[in-house]
Amino acid sequence: MLKRALAIISLLIIGYWLAQGLAGVPFGQDRMLVGQYYLDHVKEQTGAVNAVTAVVVNYRGFDTLGEVTVLFIASTGVGALLWRKKRERTAKTEGSIVLTTGTRLLAPFIMLFGAYIFIHGHLTPGGGFPGGATIATAFLLLYMAFTVYEIPHKAFEKVEGAVGMSYVLVGLIGLAIGGYFLFDWIWQTWGWGHNNIGRLFSGGFIPVIYTVIGIKVGTELSGIVDNMLKEEVRE
Amino acid sequence: MISVYYFGAIALILIGLYAVLVKKNVLKMLIGLSIMETGVNLLLVSVGYISGRSAPILSEGIGPNGAVDPIPQALVLTAIVIGVATTAMALSVAILIHEKYGTLNVEEIRRLRG
């Protein structure tokens, strides 16, 4: 009881301190410095309509590369921590007929919608990470509904590595053409899609990179789910 | 007077911190960590809000002067993914702890045996 009381008192002090600090940051007022520059120039500089994805992929592409790396390391780490010689799914309870039939119907639609999200990252809310997470949800649904379902490991791991490589490759092509890593060569050198901003075939390399990221995130999260659902079996 | 969004974000951070400090079950501590992450993300996004403006997608009549700050949203997109990655790692460590010790109580996990 004493411990809890002490914790609550110290947390209230921390909360008061945080609130004092935030009192100097008024809510809902225009404080944009770089943000206004991004909003003013996003259309002619990147061809994207969605300013958030332009910032994520184009202006601050290094952050996204680091983010993809973090997710890749997490996926590898989960695989390494849970590695055993013989791991199988030991679940015995098959889903009910409503669940299995619903999954059969729903899984393709979820995957289609995930692909829609990451292909239209430069036009609509979303992008590679939400799209990839949606695709992983479809695989999670398959895992939950069918006790025998397993993702094809070999193919998944190869796809994951290949799309990660192709992200770096797109950046390296930019280095060769434009002089710096992750340079948007499709938009700034080729000028491809300049006259249809706001349509699908615009946005420079944002759709390309987001397709790559979407596939990568989808396969990685499915791999994490797969690793966590398996248990060790004795011979 | 502090905004309700800031208050909610700080409250979420404190609730998460409370769970990490007081709870003894590893899974409950991880839930606390996730709640804390949510609070931090909510705080970041609410700092970027500008009254009366809409999402930073410049179409359908929303010009550069009608959108909120896109930078905190990009930042939070990164932070969410990193949160998911760390949670996945921590959960697999929790699975290993339960396999090795047969308990998830932090007071009973004394010796770090292989």
List keywords for this structure.
heterodimer, A: 235 residues, mainly alpha, two-stranded antiparallel ribbon, 9 helices, 68% helix, B: 114 residues, 64% helix, elongated
Q: How many beta strands in the DSSP annotation of chain A?
A: 2
> What characterizes the major β-sheet of chain A?
2 strands, antiparallel
> How many strands, what sense, and barrel or not for the largest sheet of chain B?
none
Percent range of helical residues of chain A = 55-70%
Spans of chain B of at least 5 consecutive residues whose pLDDT stays below 50 are: none
Q: Fill in the CATH topology of chain B.
A: Helix Hairpins
Q: What is the end-to-end distance of chain B?
A: 54 Å
Order of helices and strands of chain A: HHHHEHHHHHE
Q: In the CATH classification, which architecture of chain B applies?
A: Orthogonal Bundle
Radius of gyration based on Cα positions of chain B? 19 Å
CATH class of chain B: Mainly Alpha
**SS-based structural class of chain A?**
mainly alpha
Proportion of helical residues of chain B? 55-70%
pLDDT < 50 runs, ≥5 residues of chain A: none
Structure, described:
- Chain A contains nine helices and two strands, in the order H-H-H-H-E-H-H-H-H-H-E.
- With 235 residues, chain A is mostly helical.
- Chain A has one domain.
- In chain A, strands 1-2 form a two-stranded antiparallel ribbon.
- The longest helix of chain A has 26 residues, at 153-178.
- Chain B has three helices and no strands.
- Chain B has helices spanning 4-22, 26-47, 70-101.
- Chain B starts with a helix and ends in a 13-residue tail after the last helix.
- The mean pLDDT of chain B is 87.
- Chain B: One of its GO terms (cellular component) is plasma membrane.
- Chain B: The chain crosses the membrane at residues 6-22, 29-51, 71-97.
- Chain B: Pfam families: Oxidored_q2.
Summarize this entry quickly.
The complex is a heterodimer of chains A (235) and B (114). Chain A is mainly alpha-helical and 235 residues long.
